[in-house]
Amino acid sequence: MTKSAELKGGSYTLSALHLVDGDIPKAADFLKQKVDQAPHFFAAAPVVIDISQVSDTIDFEQLKHSVSEAGMIPVGISGCKAGPLQQQAKAAGFAIMNAARQAKASEPVMEPTRIIRNPVRSGQQIYAKNCDLVVMNNVSAGAEIIADGCIHIYGTLRGRAIAGANGHGEAKIFCHNLQAELVSIAGSYWLSDKIHPEFWGKNVVISLAENNLNIEQLAL
């Protein structure tokens, strides 16, 4: 008999909105700003809302509506331990998300480096699964390059570069001319306005330290 569907486990990168208080309109405004700044990255992107720091009760219906109105898709609630709150969240259509336990399985086997010689044009997306990515040309604004390992760009980066997409925090981004819309490593990201002017247009390496991005200029 032919199977009509299969249910399998999967691993996906989700953005997490951490609420520091119960001010839902303020949080929604923050999300809308992010969507407006990087619509290709955030518009209609799934988001999990962490409420572990919120001491007050939460209107989950309002929260869901406000996040949707801001341009993202609310999929779940994390940091929700109280049974009644979990029931309220479920009634509003949220999944209850738990932090992933550290896997005992071995790391994925890394594949040979993927090399792109042509320019990466606006609207293109390139993903190097289980490997490093080398781009020997420019990455245009509106383009997106993603790698589970490190990213090396031997040209100008005007689009988005996402390294360590599978959560690998040791991944790095090397770039000969940084003018990025967004850079991200293992889920931590900066939009262009977070990149200090002294590094703009320079030869840099971006790394992750204690869940914060770090940027250094490299000598040519």
Summarize the structure.
The protein has 220 residues and is of the alpha/beta class. Helices cover 17% and strands 31% of the residues.
What does this 3D model show about the protein?
The protein is of the alpha/beta class and 220 residues long. The chain has two domains: 15-96, 2-Layer Sandwich (Alpha-Beta Plaits), CATH 3.30.70.260; 114-217, Pectate Lyase C-like, CATH 2.160.20. The chain is built from four helices and 15 strands. It has helices at residues 24-37, 39-42, 60-70, 83-91, and strands at 15-18, 46-50, 73-78, 95-96, 114-116, 125-128, 133-135, 144-147, 151-157, 160-163, 173-178, 182-185, 188-191, 204-209, 212-217. α1 packs parallel to α3 (60-70). The longest helix is centred in the first third of the chain and has 14 residues, at 24-37. Belongs to the MinC family. Interacts with MinD and FtsZ.
Give a quick set of tags describing it.
31% strand; 5-stranded mixed beta sheet; Alpha-Beta Plaits; globular; 17% helix; Pectate Lyase C-like; 220 residues; 6-stranded mixed beta sheet; alpha/beta; 2 domains; 4 helices
Helix content: 10-25%
Number of strands: 15
Please report the distance between the alpha carbons of the first and last residues: 62 Å
Low-confidence stretches: 101-105
Radius of gyration: 19 Å
CATH architecture type of the largest domain = 3 Solenoid
The secondary structure category is alpha/beta
What is this structure's SSE topology?
Layout: E1 15-18, H1 24-37, H2 39-42, E2 46-50, H3 60-70, E3 73-78, H4 83-91, E4 95-96, E5 114-116, E6 125-128, E7 133-135, E8 144-147, E9 151-157, E10 160-163, E11 173-178, E12 182-185, E13 188-191, E14 204-209, E15 212-217
Helix pairs in contact: 1-3
GO biological process, one term: cell morphogenesis
Domain Septum formation inhibitor MinC N-terminal: 6-74
Keywords: Cell cycle, Cell division, Septation
